[in-house]
Amino acid sequence: MVESEQDVALEDTDRIEGRSALVNNTNAAIALAGAVRSTLGPRGSDKMLVDENGEIIVTNDGVTVLETAKVEHPTANLLIATSSAQDRIARDGTTTSVLLTAELLRNALELSRIGVHPTIIMNGYRIAMEESLTQLEEIAKSASEDDLIAATATTMAGKVDTALSENMTKLALQAARTLENEDGGDDLERIRVKRLQMTDGSGSDSEIIHGLMLKKQRLDFTTETVSDGGKIAIIDGGLENKELELEASIEIRSTGVLSGFQERKTARLAEQIENLTNFGIDLICVRDGIADEAVPLLKNAGITAYRRFEREDLERLSILTGAKMVRNPNRMTDKDVGIYTHFSANKIDDSWHVRIDGKGRAMTALLRGTTPAVREEVSRAFDDALGVAFRLVREPKILPGGGGTQTHLARHLRSFATTQKGREQLAIEGFADALEVIPRVLAENAGLDPIDEILSLSAAQAEHGSWFGLDAMSGEKADMNLMGINDPLFVARQALTGATEAAITVLRIDDVLWANVEPSTPDWSNQIDED
Ligand code: ADP
Ligand code: MG
């Protein structure tokens, strides 16, 4: 009875059940993977994306392609979420994770066609993933200084030219080392390192400073432009006494006394500024506005003032100088006062810039380029490099790139499968086949024959060991560590777990209901494989 009521409720809903659901979901995943397939590796091609406003982006970054696409299919969206998670956690490997997910689903569909139940496939996939994770640890190598450089540069392979890549690698590792022992989550390197695009100089003049630099002018131009240290206060609000204005408007309506209000406001500001003076403050940074009446008072007190900050910049300043954010100077205590070691106000390319240095671990990357497009490119390269370098110095373990890791896992899993009982064996083999999508597509994008390359890579590993991979630039099979084609362990680990989890989520679905939307499978697949 209950069922029939539900059926009535579902009358207007499109419904796909059982195997058809798997077929439909797998097709969506394969189509989506098709959209990024040609971007994989150093010889991947660029894509031109046009968004709703007609803005154009040229990129060969998988996650950018996917996040810009408008996709309605729920499975396609799940894959996009998987690649966004990969980006958040590992900052790299986004294309890899999508290709792997789609391939795991394709093989699962094949297995279900020959009668293997999805539950068995899921079990087999889980066993294969666990075994793969153990293997990754086994073949991973502790990274030397040169390896760290090579692995960071591999992240940018095919995206920027060698000179820029070298420079960004150097800056990223320098910043990463500074943050090595700091506590914080996935975003720590973005919080602690401000990126400031500068119009003076070229990309290779970019640098890291151990301070905060902002494009900003000081409140009063007669205050000092340089100092080699002093005390700083950070006001998390305004120096305006807005609440007085509110009181005053009520008062003015009832009594009409305006001057009394002005006097009170100035008196309150004077009291706040006197309190700053009592703490010996030389510099204040205020999140909101500063009232006009405060300007001469600050000047007399010898306090340099800046206003209107982004919250993140104040957080960086707080880390740098040890100053705590206070809402009201009157409530300040000794513990809230920070120390800066350098201050300067400079005109660069006609704009005022402020620089504040301190002993805490926050930095600014000055990313230079002569045109906006170059500056954007430099910024993106720096972001990729820092994200990976930061994680690498915390976990300095590397794996062979160039499809070496996946080839090793596939070879290992095929012999491992025979030790397992039942039909799970088939699923483990399906998992092994899926991993080979990475060397296959790397070969394809380098204009090589994928079947020949997979066979000869597997043979090369049998002879020379698991660190052999495909150098997509020369087409040779070689020791990836010698070639400097190193993938970080954390990237490979996340791609493997993220893709397996996503595939299992889809496999668990045997009923898809669509209400009021026209679900369409993304259909880029035909355009993608053309030359
Ligand atoms: P993702 O979004 O998955 O990071 P990329 O386009 O960055 O995709 O490609 C990463 C893959 O390219 C990795 O498997 C890496 O080992 C491989 N790779 C990088 N440089 C080379 C190279 N010179 N030869 C072969 N493979 C390479
Ligand atoms: Mg990459």
Task: Please render the helix and strand layout as text.
Layout lengths: L1 H8 L3 E5 H20 L9 E4 L5 E4 L2 H7 L5 H17 L3 H20 L4 H22 L1 E2 L2 H11 L6 H18 L8 H5 E6 L8 E3 L1 E5 L10 E2 L2 E6 L6 H14 L2 H21 L4 E4 L7 H7 L3 E4 L3 H11 L3 E2 L11 E3 L1 E7 L2 E7 L5 E6 L3 H23 L2 E4 L3 H14 L6 H12 L1 H9 L4 H15 L3 E3 L6 E3 H4 L2 E3 H20 L2 E5 L9 H4 L3
Helix pairs in contact: 2-4, 2-5, 3-4, 4-5, 4-20, 5-16, 5-20, 6-15, 6-16, 6-20, 7-8, 7-14, 8-14, 10-11, 15-16, 15-18, 17-18
The chain binds adenosine-5'-diphosphate and magnesium ion.
The site of magnesium ion has 2 residues, from loops.
Say which CATH homologous superfamily of the largest domain is assigned.
GroEL-like equatorial domain
Number of strands: 21
Structural class: alpha+beta
Question: Cofactors and ligands present?
Answer: adenosine-5'-diphosphate, magnesium ion
Assigned CATH class of the largest domain? Mainly Alpha
Please report the distance between the alpha carbons of the first and last residues.
57 Å
Question: Strand-residue fraction?
Answer: 15-25%
Tell me, what's the shape? Answer: elongated
Oligomer: single chain
- Residue stretches low in confidence (pLDDT < 50, at least 5 long) are 525-531
Gyration radius (Cα, Å) is 29 Å
Number of helices: 21
CATH architecture of the largest domain: Orthogonal Bundle
Give the mean pLDDT: 90
CATH topology-level fold name of the largest domain: GROEL, domain 1
Number of domains: 3
